[in-house]
Every structure is written in C-alpha cells, then in structure tokens.
Amino acid sequence: MAHILLGLLGIIPGFGCLADTANAVMYLLEGKYVDAAICAIGAIANAFCIPGVSEALKAGKYGKYAIQLEKVSKFMANASGLLINGGNTVKQSFDMYHKYFVDKKDAGWDTLGELGLLALSALGTYFSAKGIKDVVAEWGIKGKNGADDIVQYEKLKSEYMADEVYNADRSGSGLKEDPSHRAASYLSKEQLAKGKTYGYRGGDGKYYKLLQVKGKMDGQDGIFEYIVNSYGQVTHQRFILGGQYTGFPNQHVPKGGYK
Length: 259
Fold this sequence. Notes:
9 helices, alpha+beta, 57% helix
C-alpha cells in the first residue's frame, strides 16, 4: 500500500523527487534492489522538476550532459512506472475477478479500498504512458543530431549567467566609477542574456565564469564583459571598445580594430 501511494505521489512535479527517494530507501531496506534502482531513477528525473534545479544544472559547467541525463532519466522513470503500475493494474484486476466472480465473495467496505487502489494504479499507468510519449516526442522534434540540445544548453547557460550577474554583489573592478566600468552596470537582464558564457581558470588556479555581451557605449560598438567568482560576486566588469567574443577577459583590441 505504502509503495503504491508513494509511486503515485512520484508523478507530482517537484514533490515526486522526495516520494521516489523514500520509495527507493524502503525497497532497499526490504532487499528489493531492482525496485530500489527504478525508484532512484525516478528521483533523478523528478529532481529536474524542482523549480530552479533544472535551469541551474543545465546552465552549469556540465549542462549539456544534464540535458541528456534529464531526457534519459525521465524516459527510464516513465518506462519503469508503466511496467510497475501496469503490472499492478493487471494483478489487482485479476485478484478482484478471482475473488468476486470465481470465489463468489460478497462485496463489502474493503471492496471500495480495492477499487480505489485499482483506480490509482490505472492512473499511474496512464501518466507513465503519457510521460513516455512526451519524452519520445521531444527527442524526435528537438534532438536532431544533438544540434538543438547544444543551442538549448548555450541559451540556458547565458540566461542563468545573466540572472547571476544582474543580481550579484560587486567587488574589485566591478566597483570602479569610470565610464567604461560603470556603463556595464546598466545592461538589463534581457540584454545580458544575449551574451556568451565561458569558464576559465585564473592565474590563482581558481575557476571563474566570464560573460561577454555585444553592445554599444556612446554609439560605438564593443563588448561588455563580467567575471563572476565562486562566491557569486562580480569581481570585474567593463566595456571594451571594438571588442569581440574571445572567451577570455581584458582582450587587447588591435590598432584599427579586428579584421
């Protein structure tokens, strides 16, 4: 009974991660390792439904792998859910048929409970089948040669970085008041999201994120750039006249500009 209820709670976005995790632990304690593994896969898939988690994972350093992990885990979770809930639906239907039509038992209050469990299992079967259909459709439309996944990954990464830069505290050159540094503070979140995000290791051996955005200052083209440290602080921001996307900070624009 507990496993059936937790399995059904597992289809609720966000909350499903906790339900599937609890179900996996219970199965593990019971020594049912296959069922525990199935529920663990479901927990991974449901983790992507928690608000903010999917965006954060996909926009991180290994975002392109997170996109594939989400699809695979959702497919496997729904496939296993279809097998489990479908199997429960068939078994419960057969048991009720044998009980009331073969053994001729009288229906009672417990019959309502049996019908309720049967309905819940059937509902779980429906949602699992629908989930498989949605994942397969997504693969078929958006996953051509992985090209669209890469575009999605880059878009999400820039959007996440834009939100981080827009709301971050400033330190270092991020606090300078001269026009080229100060101008970088006035870009909107939408403008920042149109940029490109890079990761690099600084001279201190630490990992930093770099956002470069094409824009204008006083009518002249260039690049706005921002560096975010591991604490989420913008330690550097500036406008570079004539700059281009380079993937590294503080580029030196050739005299006469890039050719």
